[in-house]
């Protein structure tokens, strides 16, 4: 009987990590979504809310880190559980970074709203964010349901985000060249777009971690986490 | 006697992690240094070398991850050693990201070299990179020597990098406004500068991890890892 009791407490500890990851994931998604909504709807109050929320993710990450180490030290888990615990540490670190990126978008939104900006561009950013958020949602869903089947597809779809980002990058450069008054706002939009592209990279990292937790094997290194915007050369045409 | 033998093997495993981190750190520093040298000296071959080197850091990170999990599962370490092992996982992840950032700079250098660019700007980038590299070197030194005394100073000095980055950001925007032909190259330089600023953030992360390894306590959350460039509003003046 005591053994069963201990097992249950241990299971509960593991479940705590998973549910904390789920709540961090939900918050990170909301922050990114709201930061882009703040841009599209010219809503500085919403941007400020996103900036304030970020501390919750920092706390979440630290809580998971501390808890994970206590669980390992106390329970001395075997390989499967160990992968799950180390995986939780990794995923929470990715989610904390996603929150940072959302916060950075929100901060830039406050600057962008002080200058005129082409509406079409914030729409482009919104579409890019939707892609990244679907990606993040699916990968967190794979984590919550321990399903490895869709992981490869999710990871491969990061290419779509990269392609849309590179095209937005080109469009923003063109606007800057057309009218120097667009330069400051478009530069912030460029960085917002880059942040969203990086959120896609973090979703990819999480996909790889989930794959590792479930299968015990690292995914092959063939997926380069890189957009193609570094190739853009326009030299003022 | 067997106990002593086992202890030694275990110590050797821990030492392996530390020495692998040291070699990853050396490589990451070199990649960043060489990527900026490639820019300053117009050296596409050096940029391509940096791009090729990145896979070595990816392999290093995976090796440390795998090894760390094997050590935890086999040795069931107590809290101190556990922090060291989890710390190695975290630091190697930061170093892998530093390598990615160096590779991204190198890729942008290949595009930048195709267009004319103001020399002064690449010098500014070089100075920024030197600050970030000193930061990274010192924090890796703290890790190698387990010395916690300088950690706070190292972390605080990240402010200098942020300030220099923000000033470079402004300067680059001004160049873009002066002459639209500078826009594409300057945008790549902006992202290079941002990458270097992020390398400083990773050095800060590593400082926090080293502090945690040595003291068992997380550093206070009061250090915002943010530059101030998001506040720059120039609207074409």
TrEMBL record, chains A, B:
Homodimer. It holds the Pfam family PhoU. InterPro entries: PhoU, PhoU-like_sf, PhoU_dom. Gene3D superfamilies: Phosphate transport system protein phou homolog 2, domain 2 (1.20.58.220). It is found in: Cytoplasm. Belongs to the PhoU family. The lineage of its organism: Bacteria, Pseudomonadati, Pseudomonadota, Alphaproteobacteria, Hyphomicrobiales. This is Phosphate-specific transport system accessory protein PhoU. It comes from Aquibium oceanicum.
